[in-house]
Amino acid sequence: MQNTTPPTVQHRGIEMPRPTAAPIMMAFGAMCMASGLVLNWIFSVVGLILFCSALGRWIYILATGTGEEHLPIGTRPQPVRQSRIQVEPLRPGMPGHRMRIPEKVHPVSAGFKGGAVGGIAMAVTALSYGVFSGRGIWYPVNLLGGIILPNIGTWTDEQLGQFNLLALVLGTIIFIMTSLGVGLMFGILLPTLPRVPILWGGLVAPLLWTGAIYGFMGILNPPLSEHIDWTWFFASQFAYGITVGIIVIRSEKIPVGGFRS
Fold first, then answer.
1. Does residue 207 have a pLDDT over 70?
2. Domain limits of the chain?
């Protein structure tokens, strides 16, 4: 919709939509709600919260009239003339360069470090459950190894509380690989998230992760899911996510390779 101001060069302009992340957040929320129908209801709850928040933000922008901005139009552009003269490509720091390249980022090692320390926090939480529940410290270890050993799902609580070498080895391998791998993913994604990155890593991600595991566990090993206390499972994921988030965000940034400030 063009401005009705008289068409003088000084006042001529055009109204354009103001950039907003509300539509894409609504789409992401709708995707999470749909995923919850297949995986777990937690996805639907998180998706509903995101969808409603983005929808409210979008309605507020439209209702208050702040969804548009007036952009002035300069003089009519001159016809483009072809030229064979070579032009030096723009580089970061040169006048006229419009690319937004971060000068510094969190190092990849911060993700591995966060994954290692977060894994310790998660292990302490899980082992504390074994102690406080009276089932023993080997109970969560055997449950973790049961992801690969299907017959563990048929064990009783007494058997799950006893030491098993094979379950210990497999559980340790799964634990280390998962902690470091997810920590690396957190190290890459967390700094790019808006607002409070630790909130995403400490609350949203554990909710989605727990819901996904709960949904897939019913397919991979249904008997095993009956032995898991999902409240404590989420608590361990929360301890992991919040620890990784704090370590990654507080890590010292390093210059991007090839960029000189």
1. yes
2. 13-72, 104-255
Domain 13-72 has CATH 1.10.287: yes
| Residue-wise pLDDT tens digits, 63-96 | 787 777 776 766 666 677 776 766 666 665 555 5
pTM for the predicted model, two decimal places: 0.56
- What secondary structure, in 3-state letters, does the chain show? CECCCCCCCCCCEEEEECCCCHHHHHHHHHHHHHHHCCCCHHHHHHHHHHHHHHHHHHHHHHHHCCCEEEEECCCCCCCCCCCCCCCCCCCCCCCCCCCCCCCEECCHHHHHHHHHHHHHHHHHHHHHHHHHCCCCCHHHHHHHHCCCCHHHHHCCHHHHCCCCHHHHHHHHHHHHHHHHHHHHHHHHHHHHCCCCHHHHHHHHHHHHHHHHHHHHHHHHCHHHHCCCCHHHHHHHHHHHHHHHHHHHHHCCCEECCCCCC
